[in-house]
Amino acid sequence: MKGVQLPLAVMALPLDPDAALMLRVKNGDLEAFEELVQKYKHPIVNVIYRMLHDLEEAEDLAQNVFVRVFQSAERYEVSAKFSTWVFTIARNLCLNEIRRRGRHPAQSLESSQSENEDQPARQYTDTKVFSPPQAFLQRELEQKVQQALGELPEKQRLAIAFCQEDELSYEEIAKVLGCSLPATKSLIHRGRETLKAKLKPYLQSGAWDDPETETLPAKRC
User: What angle do CA 9, 14, 15 make, to 5 degrees?
Assistant: First the structure.
């Protein structure tokens, strides 16, 4: 890339394609920024949504993540994979929001409710097609999963949320969380075991026995 100077240590390694895009952003390339936004928008919204269970807030925070990315472009240096860097920004904003909600619970409750109480809260669309009884049971189980996730300790909840993203390896999740690799694997394991214990009565009922339905966060965990 013309005009981009890389540290010698970075030049010795294959350059992360997304980091290369961010270096183009640093040089004023708005198309490169849009490419990064399109690639990471949904994964970041997903992670924040798993933490807050509030789609509108997740979308707002994801937008703030990319505002931070753009504002940091002039100072950007390739010190890690771009995905690690951008998800760390998302983690920090998400934790700030969780702590703000802890200080102002009434305000947070109001902001997470639908403006029209007769309308259901916004949900992610599901590409799978369920019959009406199956759809009801699926929604009920998803609510139980979100409730169980919300009861996990903060770091376990974050570890489970990031574990779902294909962009991140265990090593990258550890860097995002600021933990060692063994500690990160332990957080994920303990979180999953806690979820299994909390959801065991529902999963054993036989109502949710579709092997294709991945309800528990199980990717790579």
Answer: 85
Asked whether the predicted pLDDT for residue 204 surpasses 80, the reply is: no
d(CA 130, CA 142): 14
- pLDDT of 52 reads 86
**Greatest Cα-to-Cα distance within the chain, rounded to the nearest angstrom:** 62
In a domain? residue 1: no
pLDDT tens, residue by residue, 12-56? 456 889 999 999 999 999 999 999 999 999 999 999 998 888 889
Dihedral of CA 91/219/53/179: which sign?
negative
Give per-residue burial for 97-125: e unless 16+ CB within 10 Å, then b.
beeebeeeeeebeeeeeeeeeeeeeeeee
Tokens of 167: 């962009």
Which H/E stretch holds residue 10?
helix 8-11
Helices (H) and strands (E) in the chain, counts: 10, 0
Q: What is the DSSP letter of 152?
A: S
Confirm if 92 and 68 have CB atoms less than 8 A apart: no
For residue 153, what is the domain's CATH number?
Answer: 1.10.10.10
Residues in the chain: 221
The answer as to whether 19 is a domain residue is: yes
Residues 90 and 137 grouped into a single domain:
no
User: Is there a single domain that holds both residue 105 and residue 186?
Assistant: no
Cα distances from 50 to residues 35, 77, 81, 169, 204, in angstroms, run: 24, 30, 23, 18, 24
How confident is the model at residue 27, as a pLDDT?
95
